[in-house]
Amino acid sequence: MSSASAGIPPRSRRFDLTPWVLVTPAAVIFLGLYVIPMAILFAQSFWSVSYASPDPNAPNSFTLDNYIKFVTDPYYPKVLLNTLRLAFLCVVLCVALGFPYAYLLQLSSGRLRTLLLYTLLAPLLINSVVRSFGWVALLSTDGVVNSALQALRLTDGPIKLLYTDSAVILGLVHTLLVFMVIPISESLRTIDPQLKLAAATLGANPLHTLRRITVPLAAPGILAGSLIVFAITTSAFVAPRILGGSNVTVMGYVTIQENLVSLNWPFGAAIAFITLGASLLVILASQRVDRASQHVVVN
Amino acid sequence: MTEAPRVTEAPRATHGAHVTLRGVRKAYGDFRALESIDLEVLQGEFLSLLGPSGCGKSTTLGLIAGFLRPDAGTIAFGGRVVNDVPPHRRNIGMVFQSYALFPHLTVFENVAFGLRLRKLLKDQVTTAVRKVLDLVQLQHLQDRYPRQLSGGQQQRVALARAVVLDPQVLLLDEPLSNLDAKLRQEMRVEIVTLQRRIGITTIFVTHDQEEALSISDRVAVMDHGRLVQVGTPREIYTKPATLHVAQFLGASNVFTGTVEGRDASVVVIRTDTGVLMRIAADLCDRPGIGDAALLMVRPEWVTVASRRRHTPKAAEDSLPAVLRRVSYLGSTKLYYVEAAGRQLIAIGLTIADEYLTEGAEVVVSWPFEHARLLAPDQ
């Protein structure tokens, strides 16, 4: 090396403060504004509400009632299952649409690539309430889609599109596709392009190559995208409320209901933590599956 | 006149042309990567495409493999034109520079990949994979993943995977360039041994002239998208067609000059510094008197002797020179001398040569029959 590096002392074993100093602002925000409130919320989920007292949500004795209420009530477990079902369907649909999209994105360049990226990101640039009402304008009984169908004489009367599971899934997938496409396209990018050529010399047609080389090697990206989409969907609130109405009830909605309408904060906290727990459980399970197949993943 | 016996080393191949390129052109936008290539690779032959990077050798290989389509011309395997055949139907085996092993598959699965696509029975796949892994001595590593292998082992897996399908043609794209020098030599031997054993037509792309000379039946030297010369290693080394070939294949001493005269056996060149030198005429095209000419002598033919020891011989040309530097290489010595205003290089055997010190007044000489007339580069 040149003399430029001569003045720098060799890396000492002395404790180096620099990284800790650098991480402090982020750590303070994360700890102060996220971890501590979450801890308080968790504690609150073991309190009980007493509407008789002037502050009904004041700390009081420890109880498991909120969790027991959730499990024993016929309504709430159904909402949880419905939420997980919707999340699962969103993930499946995002993979089905996101993989080809990511593949195309990876192949494209120049203007097409820019267009594809903007199309993908566009939903994120619009406020979620506005975006959902956009879907309402399209899907309602006198909306654009129904008018078009009737004008083309494909249907006699309006079809119920809005306030269905499909409408909710459509709205969610529209927004969340980007979270699936980006990780998949990242893992596609890291695949050595010569692998495809090698597969071809071994007699693999493009479909074989896709199935046996490209998809398995993109698996880490598919998994990462699925987890993100799943986590966001389980806590979604706006799209289910506006596009699903009272027909589609999800955990995000009942959480808000308990906190803002019933003012039962302890029960609301319990619902929030059950949602979080269910979501974490699914994520941990899928990571276990991933770790089991870890030897398969490119290093 | 005694004509020097022509050593023609017939390629081992006997069944005629196997891979044929006729008038093949390829351009990338404005860059003309290949300018009308004509090449015949014989059945069972080991042919190297040799040239510096950007000379078109990898493009040529890509065209033969079917990854690229020629802009013009035809590519044929055994007489059948394959221009429109996609790579997965060409029945070729290929080893890539990066090996391109499938990282999510074990050694066994990598080698079995092509066999499984052919819907062979499980037993047949296992037998075939075992056999070829045996051939490259990797049976004990069959359950490893590529990243758990050394470079040399990965290389052998790539080779096994390429030959297990019994392809018509084996294509090797600089397969040794990622290995260290010692391993490269070993793998060279292994590749040739394997190739001889299964007798497969092989096209080997390299920029390493020593590699090309040591393992090929024939070498095709490329430059700027053209095939400059095709011949046995000995032919292209001893009788290079152009200055580019001469310099690419090894050290050379080159004199520029004009043709002074010629008869049936000798062409005489007058160099730019006014020295007359001879070239055995049967080796040359027919240059006209006054034509520009290049004379080339390989350093191993050049003898360096002190002036008092030097005895002129009729069959030799010589120049007075000053010894500038001697590099001792063990069995040989490299002499860097200055003669007629230019640097010359000579190789001598350590045991045969007298001890000369740097700065000594010497005479360099060479048998004129080993001087070559080169065509100026286009």
Record field, number of beta strands of chain B: 20
Question: How would you sum up the major sheet of chain A?
Answer: none
Assign an overall shape of chain B: elongated
Low-confidence parts of chain B lasting 5 or more residues at pLDDT below 50? Answer: 1-14
- First-residue to last-residue Cα separation of chain A: 31 Å
Q: Give the radius of gyration of chain A.
A: 25 Å
| Helical content of chain B (DSSP H or I, runs of 4+) | 10-25%
- Quickly count the helices of chain A: 12
User: How far is it from the N-terminal to the C-terminal residue of chain B, by CA?
Assistant: 33 Å
What would you report as the Rg of chain B, rounded to the nearest angstrom? Answer: 25 Å
Order of helices and strands of chain B: EEEHEEEHHHEHEHEEHHEEEEEEEEEE
Task: Describe what you observe in this structure.
The complex is a heterodimer of chains A (299) and B (378). By secondary structure, chain A is mainly α. Chain A is built from twelve helices and no strands. Chain A has helices at residues 18-44, 65-72, 75-107, 110-121, 128-139, 144-151, 165-189, 193-201, 206-234, 238-244, 251-261, 265-292. In chain A, helix 7 packs antiparallel against helix 10 and helix 11 (251-261) runs antiparallel to helix 12. The model of chain A is unreliable at 1-6 and 295-299 (pLDDT under 50). Chain B has 378 residues and is an alpha+beta fold. In chain B, 22% of the residues lie in helices and 35% in strands. Chain B contains eight helices and 20 strands. Chain B has a six-stranded mixed β-sheet with strand order 6-7-8-3-9-10, with helices on both faces. A five-stranded antiparallel β-sheet of chain B has the order 13-12-11-14-20, with no helix packed on it. A five-stranded antiparallel β-sheet of chain B has the order 15-19-16-17-18, with no helix packed on it. In chain B, a hairpin with a 3-residue loop joins strand 11 and strand 12. In chain B, helix 3 packs across helix 4 (151-163). The radius of gyration of chain B is 25 Å and the shape is elongated. Chain B starts with 16 loop residues before the first strand and ends with a strand. Mean pLDDT of chain B is 89; it is low at 1-14. The chains are: A mainly alpha (299), B alpha+beta (378). The interface between A and B is medium-sized, with 22 and 30 residues.
